[in-house]
């Protein structure tokens, strides 16, 4: 089973994060069962809204999301970082344009499918 651990932020933000991550795993990496994704809802001081870092191997990831974001931007940012998870997990290059292109599409799907 994939493991999603979320820390920091408020409970509703952690719940939102969990729903969006589980949805995007299903959409982007439907066959993977051994992912371990650690998310920290934290205070990001610079202009970035989130980060995605690969852990010891390409099944382990560390994501940081700015907890000051509003609901819409938080969903967009999580979707964006999950595209990078997909890229690393599939040994693709971390292409920013793909993440930016898929981010609004995935976020809209989250709303349309009532997962948030
Ligand atoms: Zn990016």
Distance between the termini: 22 Å
CATH topology, by name, is Collagenase (Catalytic Domain)
Q: What overall geometry do the principal axes of the alpha carbons give? A: globular
Number of helices: 3
Structural class: alpha/beta
* Helix share, percent: 40-55%
Assigned CATH superfamily:
Metalloproteases ("zincins"), catalytic domain
Number of domains: 1
Order of helices and strands: EHEEEHH
Gross CATH architecture: 3-Layer(aba) Sandwich
Instruction: Going across the biggest sheet, name each strand in turn.
Output: 1-2-4-3
Strand content: 15-25%
Count the strands? 4
Radius of gyration: 13 Å
Please provide a written account of the structure.
It is a single chain. This protein is of the alpha/beta class and 116 residues long. The protein has one domain (3-112): Collagenase (Catalytic Domain). The protein is built from 3 helices and 4 strands. The protein has helices spanning 11-28, 71-89, 96-112; strands at residues 3-8, 36-42, 50-54, 60-66. It has a 4-stranded mixed β-sheet, with helices on one face. Helix 1 links the parallel strand 1 and strand 2. Helix 1 (11-28) packs parallel to helix 2 and helix 2 packs across helix 3. The two termini are 22 Å apart. The mean pLDDT is 97.
């Amino acid at each position: 089973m994939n493991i999603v651990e979320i820390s920091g932020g408020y409970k509703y933000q952690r719940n939102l994060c969990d729903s969006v991550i589980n949805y995007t795993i299903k959409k982007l990496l439907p066959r993977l069962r051994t992912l371990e994704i650690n998310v920290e809802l934290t205070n990001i001081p610079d202009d970035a809204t989130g980060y995605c870092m690969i852990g010891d191997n390409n099944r382990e990831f560390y994501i940081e999301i700015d907890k000051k974001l509003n609901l819409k931007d938080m969903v967009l940012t999580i979707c964006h970082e999950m595209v990078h998870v997909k890229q690393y997990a599939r040994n693709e290059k971390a292409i920013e344009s793909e993440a930016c292109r898929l981010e609004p599409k995935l976020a809209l799907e989250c709303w349309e499918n009532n997962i948030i």
